[in-house]
Amino acid sequence: MSDSARANPVAVTEAATLVNPLREGLTIERAAEPCAMVIMGAHGDLTKRKLIPALYALFIQGLLPEGFCIVGQSRTAMSHEQFRAAMLESMRQFAADVPLADEEWRRFAACLYYLPADFARPDAFQPLAELLAELAGRHGTQGNNIFYLSIAPSLYVPVIHGLSAAGLAASRPGKQAPWPRIVVEKPFGHDLQSAQALDHELHGVFGEHQIFRIDHYLGKETVQNIMVLRFANGIFEPLWNRQHIEHIQITNAESIGIEGRGSYYEEAGNLRDMVQNHMLQLVSLVAMEPPISLDAEATRDERTKVLKAIRPFNPANLDQQVVRGQYGPGWILGQKVPGYRQEPKVSPESRTETFSALKLFIDNWRWADVPFYVRSGKRLGKSITEIAIQFRRAPHKLFRDPAGDDQISPNMLVLQIQPDEGISLKFATKQPGPTTQIRWLSMDFRYGTAFAVRTPSAYERLLLDCLVGDASLFARTDQVEVAWALIDPVLRAWNQGPPPAFPDYSAGSWGPPASDRLIEADGFAWRRL
Ligand code: BG6
Predict the structure, then answer these.
(1) 3-class secondary structure, 387
(2) What is the rounded distance in angstroms from the CA atom of residue 428 to the CA atom of residue 439?
């Protein structure tokens, strides 16, 4: 037994396994493989709010493998028991939608361990190797390990080197040989160059098939449903192109601010935090060609092709393609909230954008000349993420449109990603009565009412996929690079240009006036949400 394991004796002595019979109703396509999951950054918010609730939810659905255990690591000194108690407390605080029963938690907690570590120190990894070897015997993990990096990006490289030096990163040859996998949280690099440098370090130690770059948007139910809607139904695909679609609007609005993450956000800004990853993944899912299969490479190939086809921004008239904004003080839901520059750990002269809006063109046969408008921002009027597909108007006017004499309203398909997940189709109908009056109505599908089940968190799906070894819903190295290559010139231009007139929108509004001008210049308007 390692010193640290001795210092933190495990209260539950029998080897616990995670078998659970609650599998009814679930079709399990591929089984999760036995392994230990090491969460680096176990004291952080992500572990408490997302990772442990997701793993426990998988456990009660019987989706974890029999041979499984979790090792939490962070700098804070804690015993296994203290870690288990802290995780139970976070379940109570953050996972109200996951049923928590004493007996099940006891069995789950028996597979939770904790090992303090300073990841910057090369000697932090040998005790981990020893504990994992011991747990392999105790829990039947077969020596397979997943390392989940939920730590400051500056620690990624020391961790990669430390794992390698401790012999934890190498796959042994042979089909049944133990494997390592590594999950890397965003931000994946700060720009193209740093993303490539990080990839170089990762590839020095892990194979691409062992690297899982997480983008939690890809794990959201509604985001996965974009592919199902498009490719499991025969009726949408024939309309899904420039002949029938006039433009597409993707909105990600958050009413929250930066939630105490001033130091991170000052370095990141909205373009890096939301657009380079989450928003571009949404664009690629809406615009991709049908893949030949659901295989990880086939789907990722198609998503990457979309990103490669996005027309690079022209620095000569950048303002007509990308705008930015920063919130000042304002009101949200009747509460007065401070401006970005008044947030803790934010410079009073900060140039960091908390909002951006972009006009993209995808230069291929399907999408030539169809604008994709993308907007994302913090402290907006309300929290909502949606994709609105606006179809071309009926070519000949037979009926009087309520929008006005010379108007024909367009049909619109709205994929509501969150909250109130669902799909709506807006269409014209005859209002009952002796005259022909048109009314625009919407046909609505809502997950909540249609299925009446809990929507699993994105992390449940993504962690399970990682346990199974399926990387389809994770970003591949070339995707990350293409996305940075698109965004980098904008960031450079912003950095080199004169300081923006920030703040330029009030908290609680819908962003700066420049955002409206961006879309209105083409004769369209942002949807009012
Ligand atoms: C994270 C960003 O990746 O996504 C946050 O760092 C943002 O700034 C969050 O708030 C939004 O995620 P969701 O799932 O709440 O839309």
Answers:
(1) strand
(2) 6
Q: Which residues contact 299 (CB under 8 A, 6 or more apart)?
A: 227, 288, 291, 472
The CA-based diameter of the chain, rounded to the nearest angstrom, is: 86
Q: Are 284 and 250 in contact (CB under 8 A)?
A: no
491, 313 Cβ separation under 8 angstroms? no
Structure token pair of residue 292: 């030949």
Residue of 415, 413, 414, 422 whose CA lies nearest to 455: 422
Q: How far apart are CA 156 and CA 120, in angstroms?
A: 9
Tens-place pLDDT, residues 424-441: 999 999 999 998 889 999
Q: Which atom of ligand 1 is nearest to 418's Cα?
A: 16
Which DSSP category does 96 fall into?
Answer: T
- What letter does residue 304 receive in the DSSP assignment? H
Q: Is 366 exposed, middle or buried (0-12, 13-18, 19+ CB in 10 A)?
A: middle
Atom of ligand 1 nearest to the CA of 385: 16
Does the pLDDT at position 24 exceed 60? Answer: no
Q: What is the DSSP letter of 155?
A: G
Q: Tens digits of per-residue pLDDT, 140-153?
A: 999 999 999 999 99
Find the 403 Cα to ligand 1 centroid distance in Å. 36
Active site residues: 278
What's the pLDDT band for 18 if we cut at 50, 70, 90?
Answer: very low
405 vs 42 pLDDT, higher one: 42
What residue's CA is closest to ligand 1, atom 15?
254
Task: Look at phi and psi of residue 523 and say left if phi exceeds 0, alpha if psi is from -120 to 50, else beta.
Answer: left
Q: Which residues line ligand 1 (CB under 6 A)?
A: 254, 273, 385
Q: What whole-number distance in Å separates Cα of residue 385 and Cα of residue 377?
A: 11
The answer to whether 391 and 410 have CB atoms below 8 angstroms apart is: yes
3-class DSSP state of 197:
helix
Q: Which residue CA neighbors atom 14 of ligand 1 most closely?
A: 217
List the structure tokens of 479. Answer: 């995707």
Nearest residue by C-alpha to atom 8 in ligand 1: 273
Our mutation pick for probing the ligand 1 site, out of 254, 276, 417, counting the most ligand atoms within 8 A of Cβ, is 254
**Residue 173: per-residue pLDDT:** 64
What does the alpha-carbon distance between residue 318 and residue 518 come to, in Å, rounded to a whole number? Answer: 11
Residue nearest to atom 2 of ligand 1 (CA): 273
**Residues 6 or more apart whose Cβ sits within 8 Å of residue 184:** 149, 156, 198, 202, 211, 212, 213, 214
Tell me the C-alpha to C-alpha distance, in Å, between residue 169 and each of 161, 165, 203: 9, 8, 11
- Name the residue type at position 119: F
Q: Please, are residues 402 and 440 in contact by the beta-carbon 8 Å criterion?
A: yes
